[in-house]
């Protein structure tokens, strides 16, 4: 059985002619017909070439891998219990799911406080991030979760100003930072600015620290969707030339007269802007972290991708040595604004495997008494059960779940509903709930109470994101209540069980048939029947040790 789908995907707007008869090895039609117009990826590549490498249409979609990995979080189940309570009195009138606390503090000094254990990782210069930033920034801010401004924002800003090759003003960066800070509530959350190779050369971190009051910055080694630098598509020749002048790789060369002629003739319609890959070594990494702290950064984060295990070990160890405040590890298969489609499907270590290795490496350092930074994991998370399982898989080291594609989807849906309300063209599927923002969005009454007259300033995209996050919050509280865990710090690896032997082998989480074996025997023998699991050592490991 193939884990991959080849030669036809909605992501590349391609399909097979003989959809019911496909060669599994190649994805080709069982019979390839002389005379076919070329609807599959091979055929489309015959006339559009490298354009077909990327998901389409660029700028209005996000994409994620279709590959079916051998093990994923569905191969684990959440365990509940009928005895005891952690973080609340064992009283049925007190230990109710609305009482579950989802607040968390992160950073070396635990100075960043969050309402939910969720962070939105780097959303950078892609059009889809830029066009939905209002909903993302305001929604994340009022929900009390951190939001990361991703790579290349200053470099892509046509109105940005530079002096001696360093950015001194970027209206787009100003807009993004200001929107979040304006709506930040009671100090919850944080706005984080990420930097890649080009950003570092342009002095983006120094600029946002000194001029925009940004306290948290993130160094980027990579992401889960790809193992090359970021890329976007450019439809404007002048902008493509500007970006080349600013130091980016632009393909084809927008300054080549023959390329210019071909573009103007309509032979192709988009340029590709690519970022460089970084070259990591311990000395330069530690030096850069110290440079940022001297520049005024209060918190320094690191994001890495689904690279080989040795590189994951480097990320964990270097983060420990540098005293990094948050390490984000993004697994293969997650979503992106733009990455090569086959790369997105066929490179990198998938989530369960990567995050299980991450737990082992973090635990190894902890056992030696070395500093372990707070850790966020990312890679295809969308729902509350996945959040619970992800936190449990790496407890006590995994503190946050990184989610980008799902929050962006919620913001886009909210924005679309708002536009359709204004146009008086609500689809029946939505109109059954009402005709106004107040009627359709279930959190509108709460937000009106919180913000009063300012409620009218909250865009529907932000309400959509906030409403989605509140659904996740309630769902997570219910799951935690069922496991009798009334605060995040009590979640442990004991709270999940593997459903397959392979999942157990990879993760070190016991198979469901092996869970509680010794305790069950004690109960059956009459030696532990009256003792709650907490008294028997079950669930204690969430606070330290091997977790």
Describe this entry's structure for a reader.
By secondary structure, this protein is an alpha/beta fold. Among the domains are: about 1-55, no CATH class; about 230-275, no CATH class; about 410-480, no CATH class. About 40% of the residues lie in helices and about 15% in strands. The protein is built from 21 helices and 19 strands. It has helices spanning about 40-50, 125-130, 135-145, 155, 170-185, 195-200, 205-210, 235-245, 255-265, 280-295, 310-320, 340-345, 350-365, 385-395, 405-425, 430, 435-440, 445-450, 460-480, 500-505, 515-525, and strands at about 65, 75-80, 105, 110-115, 120-125, 145-150, 160-165, 165-170, 190-195, 215-220, 230-235, 250, 270-275, 300-305, 325-330, 335, 375-380, 400, 495-500. The strands form six sheets. Strands 5-6-9-10-14-15-17-18 form an eight-stranded parallel β-barrel, surrounded by seven helices. β7 (about 160-165) and β8 (about 165-170) form a beta hairpin. α15 (about 405-425) crosses α19 (about 460-480). The longest helix has 23 residues, at about 460-480. The protein is globular and about 85 Å long. Residues about 535-545 have low confidence and may be disordered.
Structural class: alpha/beta
- Work out the radius of gyration: 25 Å
Mean pLDDT across the residues is: 93
Strand order within the widest beta sheet: 5-6-9-10-14-15-17-18
Number of helices: 21
Largest sheet: 8 strands, parallel, barrel
Number of strands: 19
């Amino acid at each position: 059985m193939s884990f991959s789908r080849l030669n036809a995907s909605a992501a590349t707007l391609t399909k097979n002619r003989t959809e019911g008869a496909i060669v599994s090895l190649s994805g080709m039609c069982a019979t390839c017909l002389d005379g076919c117009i070329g609807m599959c990826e091979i055929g489309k590549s015959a006339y559009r070439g490298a354009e077909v490498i990327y998901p389409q249409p660029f700028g209005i979609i996000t994409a994620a891998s279709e590959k079916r990995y051998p093990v994923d979080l569905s191969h684990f189940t959440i365990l509940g219990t009928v005895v005891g309570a952690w973080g609340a009195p064992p009283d049925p009138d007190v230990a109710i799911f609305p009482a579950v606390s989802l607040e968390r503090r992160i950073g070396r000094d635990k100075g960043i406080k969050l309402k939910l254990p969720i962070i939105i990782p780097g959303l950078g210069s892609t059009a889809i991030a830029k066009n939905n930033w209002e909903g993302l920034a305001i929604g994340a801010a009022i929900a009390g979760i951190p939001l990361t401004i991703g790579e290349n924002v200053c470099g892509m800003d046509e109105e940005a100003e530079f002096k001696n090759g360093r950015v001194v003003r970027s209206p787009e960066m100003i807009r993004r930072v200001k929107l979040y800070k304006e709506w930040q509530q009671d100090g919850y959350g944080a706005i984080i600015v990420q930097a890649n190779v080009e950003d570092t050369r342009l002095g983006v971190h120094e600029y946002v620290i000194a001029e925009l009051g940004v306290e948290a910055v993130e160094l980027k080694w990579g992401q889960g969707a790809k193992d090359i630098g970021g890329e976007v598509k450019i439809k404007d020749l002048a902008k493509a030339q500007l970006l080349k002048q600013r130091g980016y790789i632009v393909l084809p060369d927008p300054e080549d007269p023959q390329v210019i002629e071909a573009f103007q003739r309509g032979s192709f319609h988009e340029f590709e802007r690519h970022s460089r890959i970084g070259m990591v070594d311990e000395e330069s990494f530690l030096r850069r972290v110290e440079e940022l702290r001297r520049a005024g950064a209060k918190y320094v984060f690191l994001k890495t991708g689904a690279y080989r295990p040795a590189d994951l070990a480097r990320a964990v160890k270097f983060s420990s040595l540098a005293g990094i405040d948050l390490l984000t590890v993004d697994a293969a298969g997650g979503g992106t604004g733009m990455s090569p489609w086959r790369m997105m499907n066929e490179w990198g270590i998938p989530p369960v495997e990567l995050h299980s290795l991450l737990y082992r490496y973090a635990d190894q350092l902890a056992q030696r008494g070395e500093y372990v930074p707070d850790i966020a994991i990312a890679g295809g998370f969308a729902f509350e059960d996945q959040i619970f399982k992800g936190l449990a898989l790496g407890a006590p080291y995994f503190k946050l779940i990184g989610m980008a594609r799902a929050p962006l989807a919620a913001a886009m849906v909210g924005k679309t509903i708002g536009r359709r309300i204004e146009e008086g063209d609500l689809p029946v599927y939505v109109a059954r709930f009402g005709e106004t923002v107040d009627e359709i969005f279930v959190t509108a009454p709460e937000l009106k109470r919180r913000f009063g007259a300012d409620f009218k300033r909250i865009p529907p995209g932000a309400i959509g994101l906030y409403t989605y996050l509140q659904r996740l919050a309630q769902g997570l509280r219910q799951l935690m209540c069922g496991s009798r865990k009334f605060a995040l710090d009590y979640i442990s690896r004991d709270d999940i069980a593997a459903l397959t032997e392979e999942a157990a082998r990879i993760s070190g989480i016991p198979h469901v048939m092996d869970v509680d074996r010794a305790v069950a025997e004690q109960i059956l023998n009459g030696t532990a029947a009256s003792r709650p699991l907490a008294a028997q050592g079950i669930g204690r490991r969430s606070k330290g040790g091997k977790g």
